[in-house]
Amino acid sequence: MIPKEQYLHILQMVKNLKHQSITGVTDEELLTRAQNLAQLEAFSGFLPIRKGTKSPLVSTWGEEYLSLEKALSYEPAALAVFSPNFLTLDYDKESALDFVAERGIDFTLPTLHTRRTDKLWRFKQTFLTTDEMLDELPNRSIKRTLNYLGTGLDVFCSKKAYIIIDGEYEDGEGRYYSPGGLDVCDLQHPPKEVWDLILEIAELQSHDKSSSQTYSNTKSKKLYPCPICGRDKNHWCFENNNGLIHCMNGQTFSAEKKHGALKIGDVVDGYALVAQISTCNTFKLHNPIFKRIYNPRPLNRRSASARR
Length: 308
Ligand SMILES: [Zn+2]
Known about the structure:
It is built from nine helices and 14 strands. The protein is elongated. It has two domains: 4-200, no CATH class; 216-308, no CATH class. It has an eight-stranded antiparallel sheet with strand order 1-2-7-8-4-5-3-6. It is α+β, with helices and mostly antiparallel strands. The model is unreliable at 210-218 and 291-308 (pLDDT under 50). The chain has helices at residues 4-16, 27-38, 68-72, 94-102, 131-134, 192-206, 255-259, 289-294, 297-307; strands spanning 45-49, 78-82, 86-91, 112-116, 123-128, 153-156, 163-168, 175-177, 220-222, 238-240, 245-248, 267-268, 271-277, 280-285. Zinc ion is lined by residues 226, 228-229, 231, 237, 247.
């Protein structure tokens, strides 16, 4: 444990800084928050954030894990943290809440929450993954995922995605904070429904190796209604550039709710199931014409007879 005198030192430091990078009104509030934040040093690095931006004041971040005190010495306007073990759901729009609720994810589940004083319904929910969980991912992380399936949900599970957790929002109006009971000491491991979402994103990203860009809805076409499950609201099912149809499992619509139990190779309404994970069924247009290309003789014979 860090001695209390050191926190008092940090408190003095915070009060003397040009910008208030820790949110709190009374000395007691600031002290408590500093104590909570300092616990993150055990598994994450701090980043000082430049006033009026969301950018770090240090250029080579990611290798060096700065302590809270060291980060504060940069006189930042806000503080960010990064760790390979952080999994963060960033609810940017109300549609993101609808999306996760439909999948059985409880966005109120107590863990570390980061809110903004000016926009209460925009918040981040951060979980702590175990090393065993990360072993399930191809690169022990997923690519930074913005606006997943066009729902307004950002998903981070990577050391390369830092999370701003305290101090001023870039516009200087709002402030980041964590409500009581949803602070650092309340960090939880992700429940199954959340981890399934990460596995799904990792799976979709592995289908998309051609591009190193962030996976987002820009390279896919929304399907409404979805030709597989018939979903005609929320429009989560989508078709990729490569022609694969990703039909998402929700509580109301899913491929198996519409067509019964499915296995790889099954054809429904002209689409063949080519991949299946717990949250999504992936289909490809089933085109028997391809068989003729590989076995052209019957086709030639038929065209020959047509000429007669
Ligand atoms: Zn669908």
